[in-house]
Amino acid sequence: MKSISESEIRDGYRLLILSARLLQRRQDEVLAPLGLTRAAAIAMGGLADGPLNQEQLAAAIHVKSQTIGRVLERLHSAGLVSRTRLPHDRRQFTIALTDTGRALLKSARDAQANAFPADSNGWRKLRMELSRFVDSLQNPESAERNSTSAAAARRWSNG
């Protein structure tokens, strides 16, 4: 199997960074008319399946609890989420989307979906490859086993 050169790795890294920036910019453009930021849309999306406390929400959307606090305060002030104190721990709140928040989340998701090319097959392939890439970064041992297994399978089928 041919190894990847350092320049190919650098070029791939630059493409990923540029792609992420362009996607973020486009998301910002379509969310702004709705009065939302990407962070707010992500937080609201994390609540789509039901109420969570702040720590659970932060874990679900892969941010620190302190980071999400300011976003939740703005969403609460705007009437997009409700905060209910937990009876067994008065320091904690359950956070849930309000009806207004749920409707705005649907609008945000529709706007985001329509903001990008409709090449569903290309998006599926990209998503699969990026998922594998992210998994290999998060679980290097698993990625090594899978690449070794894949190489062995190729040798076996060619042999």
Description:
There is one protein chain. This protein is mainly alpha-helical. The protein folds into 2 domains: 6-116, Winged helix-like DNA-binding domain superfamily/Winged helix DNA-binding domain (Arc Repressor Mutant, subunit A, Orthogonal Bundle); 119-159. Helix content is 68%, strand content 11%. The chain contains 7 helices and 3 strands. The chain has helices at 6-31, 38-46, 54-60, 65-77, 99-113, 120-138, 140-158; strands at residues 52-53, 81-86, 89-97. The protein has a 3-stranded antiparallel β-sheet with strand order 1-3-2. A hairpin with a 2-residue loop joins strand 2 and strand 3 (89-97). Helix 3 (54-60) packs across helix 4 and helix 6 crosses helix 7 (140-158). The protein is globular. 14% of the residues are buried. The model is unreliable at 151-159 (pLDDT under 50).
